[in-house]
Amino acid sequence: MSVYRRWFCQCSGKPQELIYDQVLDEEIPGEPVCERCGASPSSDPKHTISFRDEDDYDG
Ligand SMILES: [Zn+2]
């Protein structure tokens, strides 16, 4: 069982899920970025980023 972390940005007034950059053949994992405002978990000047952990299995 693993946990999948979903990231959201509130810049539009309602939570919008961030899209992970798919990085292949890289040791550095991609970081999710808001397509609308460009915020990311490590660059969140307006504090619009939030996340939710979800169990990644079929119940
Ligand atoms: Zn945003």
TrEMBL record:
<protein>
    <recommendedName>
        <fullName>Rubredoxin</fullName>
    </recommendedName>
</protein>
<feature type="region of interest" description="Disordered">
    <location>
        <begin position="35"/>
        <end position="59"/>
    </location>
</feature>
